[in-house]
Amino acid sequence: MTLPLWALLGVMVVGMTMRAPIGFSMIAAGIAYLAVKGQDMGLAAEQVANGLYNSYVLLAVPLFILAANLMNAGTISERIFDFCRILVGRMRGGLAQVDILVSVVFSGMSGSAIADAAGPGLVTIKQMLRKPGYSPGFAGAVVVSSATIGPIVPPSIPMVIYALVSGTSVGALFLAGVVPGLLMAVVLMIAVHVIATRRNMPRDEPVPLRDYPRLIWRGALPLSLPVVLLTGIYTGAFTPTEAAAVAALHALVLAGAVYRALDWRALYTVLLESTRASAVITVIIAGAFLMSYAFTAEGVPQALAQWVDAMDLSQLQFLLMVSAVFLVLGCFLDVSVMLLVFVPMLLPSAKLLGVDLVHFGVVVVVNMMIGLVTPPFGMLLFVTNALTGIPIRDMIREGWAFLLMLTLLLLALVLFPQIVLWLPQSMGYGLK
Question: CA 359, CA 61: separation in Å to the nearest integer?
Answer without folding.
Answer: 22
